[in-house]
Amino acid sequence: MIDVDRKYGHTIINKLTCRGFDDEMRAIVASNLEGRGIKLHPGTNLSELSKTADGIKVVTDKGEELIADVVLFATGRTPNSQRLNLQAAGVEIDRVGAIKVDEYSRTSAPSVWAVGDVTNRINLTPVALMEATCFAKTVFGGQQVKPDHRDVPCAVFSIPPLSVVGLSEEQALEEANGDILVFISSFNPMKNSISKRQEKTIMKLVVDAETDKVLGASMCGPDAPEIIQGIAIAVKCGATKADFDSTVGIHPSAAEEFVTMRTVTRRLSPTSKPKTNL
């Protein structure tokens, strides 16, 4: 979304973009944005907006003054449940207005179920469809089917895009019982050989050091969502790093890097957790 209007010289005022994603990948996205002419102001908030003859004057909490043609408020979203009078039906909501549900998407009212963004679980269209399918099977199909929110792939359609599945490096350390192995590959994609653009593709695998199970995969580069969608199947099926290593790559392609990464970039233990406050 950020890159749609990058040609207009946007300024982004926040911490690193893509909150909740792998910190290293977030830093790469930020670097790519800056390389495309977008000026970032990490950790900055707005204190004043006013119209001027030249546009809109923006004053930050750090005392900076900026002049902009347009100001876009992209401050997140909350469930749109305020006007539903849910309390009258006995439906409980949390402090941000999300409907509380159990593992089958049942609310506190026996006859009311809720799926999708209004439950504030994973706010993605395909996840809402999956939750609705589970609801239909449970209520109308005679099956007890729980939505499975593990290893949901997703993407940020920046330029180039970022896509991930499974656990980030930080999440893996939080959940790991032992060490994790991180494999990283960085290269200039063939698409850039003519334009000479110095914008690296970055791929990462996070692996459980004891079980060899691939816990997560991430990629920032051209076609990342298309590639990660296939990797997501392997992660969902519990593939090991050995499974990846034994798979023959398609050459020449960017995707083959996921099955040719052999060298451990770093080994981390839960006692050496990286900072996640980017």
Automatic annotation (TrEMBL):
Ordered alphabetically, the record's keywords are: Disulfide bond, FAD, Flavoprotein, Oxidoreductase, Redox-active center
- Signal peptide coordinates: none
Q: Does the keyword Disulfide bond apply?
A: yes
Residues covered by the Pyridine nucleotide-disulphide oxidoreductase dimerisation domain? 152-261
- Which co-factors does it depend on? FAD
A GO MF annotation of the entry reads: flavin adenine dinucleotide binding
Q: Where is the FAD/NAD(P)-binding domain?
A: 16-132
| GO BP terms | cell redox homeostasis
Report the sequence similarity comment from the record.
Belongs to the class-I pyridine nucleotide-disulfide oxidoreductase family.
Tell me what this protein is called: Glutathione reductase cytosolic
- Its source organism is Zea mays (Maize)
